[in-house]
Every structure is written in C-alpha cells, then in structure tokens.
Amino acid sequence: MLNPISYMYEGILKRGILNSPILVNHLLLVLDETDLLSDDPAATAKGLEKLRHFIKWCHALKIDIISVYIGVIRDGMDKKLLEKTYSHLIQHITKALSKEKASIAIYADTSAPEPPYVKFINAVDDDKDNNRKKINISIGLGGRSELTKAIKEIVKRVKKGEIKPEEIDEKVIESELIFKSEPSLVIRSGATRLTDFLLWQSVYSEFYFTDVNWANFRKIDLLRAVRDFQWRERRFGR
Q1: What is the DSSP letter of 183?
Q2: Most buried of the four, 95, 130, 137, 185, by CB within 10 Å?
Q3: Confidence class of residue 237 from pLDDT cuts 50, 70 and 90?
Q4: Which pairing describes strands 117-121 and 134-139: parallel, antiparallel, or unpaired?
Q5: Domain ranges in the chain with CATH number 3.40.1180.10
C-alpha cells in the first residue's frame, strides 16, 4: 500500500511520461530463470504475479510491444534437468499470462538443431491487427542462437538459387531474424550484466540497469526507467 506522497509522486511521473513526445514503443525486460522459478512455490507465484503487473504497468504507459528475456543457466546442468526447467517455465508463464489481452509468443531454445520451440497465446494475424498489443517471451533463446539460425536459413536460400551471396545485406539478414522489432529501452533488473538477447536489434537501444531485484521491483522503478529514457539524447550510433 503506497503512502499518499508516494502515490502522488507516481501520478506526477506517469503524467509527465504520457505527456512527453518521446514514447517507448518497444520495451525489453531482462530477467534470470530464478526470478520466475523457485523451489519455493510462493516465491514462484510472486515472481509470475510481478510479471503480470509489469505488463499492465507498461500498457498503462502506452507501451504496446513488450519483450521479456529469461536467461537460463546451462553450464554443468544435466540435460533432463534443463528440459524440466524449460518445461516448468513455459507452463507457469502460459498459465500466468493466459488472460492477458495481447498477442503472446513464448520462445524456448532447447539447443536442438531444429527451430526453437514456440507457443502462441491469443495469437492474431499481424496483417489484420497491427495495433494489437504484443508480448514476446524468450526462454534462453539468445542473440547468438538467433543469428546462427538466420545465417543457416540464408545459406539454404543461396544453395537453392533464391539469392546470390553478393545480394546478402542487412535487410536479408533481418528478414530471417525471429524477432523483428527493435527495442527502444532495455531494463535489466537486479544486475549489471548484459545479455546477448536481440544482439542485432538492440544495437541502438537505450539500456537501464537497476540494482533492485525482481522480487522488489515496483511500478515506480519502471516509471523512473522510462523517464530516464525520455531525458536521454538518443544518437542511434551517430
């Protein structure tokens, strides 16, 4: 329960954000698997509930594309345990977000040679409903895996004679990427480590690191991150 002063401060921040001509079109949130999956059922429920709230907070700020990357520790992990971790994350996230009014896609990289596992929730035809809110959840599917898969697809197209090697440019590479949208803002909760998710797409994104861990992340922390983004002078590599 917020005290009156904190409540007023949140209101001031929100109004300032919504009145700014600089809006966040696509926000990327970076988490670890332990933020959403724990041996303690209560902690797991709390982490997933926080994710639901985070999405609603973003939508209230008119952020219509939300991506969430969940890093999964693989080094030294037994294959069966790793598969169990992926399965549990997918099940819990699907249940937690099943009632969200958005087109949701959950991607999981199981390190298999085949394309990543994909599950769609409330999916819509992008061509018919471009204004629909979109949520992308990536479980362990990093940028290196995405780029590797894109290069393999381009090689197949070259072998088929669909394109010539000299015709390969940025547009061709981007056409084979899984995630098409470039995030305006990347928020890393509880750590200062970068992630390799959306390596290509986030080259001009603004990064916001907070030492507030996910369990303690509040609406005001999101508001401060977005306000900080609006105050920055974006250079887009110039």
Answers
A1: P
A2: 137
A3: very low
A4: unpaired
A5: 21-141+182-229
